[in-house]
Specification:
4-stranded antiparallel sheet, 8% strand, alpha+beta
């Protein structure tokens, strides 16, 4: 029984190591408050739990107000986003360094990436030329029907519905091709800007810059895969 009592007292001592500890803080007016229990004036300022000899046991942060809690949450979210961007930037920089060994490789990969786009544009231009030639023939046929008149009604003959439908289909096909070419031209400009920015970034890092020390483009050249070979036109 005596041994058991000693063990219980020892266990209790572990949970009460700071008997006689006090709480201390300095309020907004610079007044110091000390008490065996947390003073009311310490509710809005940092408070310290101290031993009898004045040494600090721990620091207790004040409970934030709803407004402070909201501000703190916004700051924490902003920090998380900043840390996420920094980590992503470091990943992209590491990808640049591992993908390219010299500046010329950027130009080689850029040309390989743009080449299929230019091929599709060339095919689109050739198709537009064929559409223009066919539309010219259709217009000539339309004029033929307009010039011809029925002996009974003396009115211009109507063009076959299939010819009218083809004319309309070719119009919309050409418009789609023109829009596609404009989009591909924009894509090429964006690729050139992206690879150019990444080449400058690569040179900066290789010249002594720190990986992840500054933001770069949203997508690095190292993340860009060469476009697939064109199909269709």
């Amino acid at each position: 029984m005596r041994t058991k009592r000693i063990l219980l007292l020892a266990a209790a001592a572990l949970y009460l190591p700071f008997a006689g500890a006090a709480f201390k803080c300095v309020d907004e007016k610079g007044i110091t408050h000390i008490g065996d229990t947390p003073p009311d004036k310490c509710a809005t300022v940092p408070m310290f739990e101290i031993k009898a000899n004045g040494s600090v046991i721990r620091k207790i942060e004040p409970t934030p107000s709803p407004e402070q809690a909201k501000t703190l949450a916004v700051e924490q979210e902003r920090k998380r986003e900043a840390d996420k961007r920094d980590a992503e930037q470091k990943r992209k920089d590491a990808a640049l360094l591992s993908t390219y060994s010299n500046e010329r490789e950027f130009d080689v990969v850029l040309e390989r990436t743009i080449s299929p786009i230019r091929s599709r544009m060339k095919g689109a231009h050739e198709r537009i030329a064929a559409i223009d030639a066919r539309q010219k023939k259709i217009e000539e046929e339309m004029e033929f029907y307009k010039a011809g008149k029925s002996k009974m009604s003396k009115k211009a003959d109507e063009a076959p519905p299939t010819l009218v439908a083809e004319q309309e289909r070719l119009f919309f096909e050409k418009q789609s091709l023109v829009n596609g070419i404009a989009s591909q031209e924009k894509e090429i400009v964006q690729l050139e800007e992206r690879f150019g920015a990444d080449k400058k970034r690569w040179v900066r890092i290789r010249g002594g810059g720190t990986v992840g020390d500054a933001p770069a483009t949203a997508t690095t050249a190292a993340d860009t895969k060469p476009a697939k070979k064109p199909g269709g036109y």
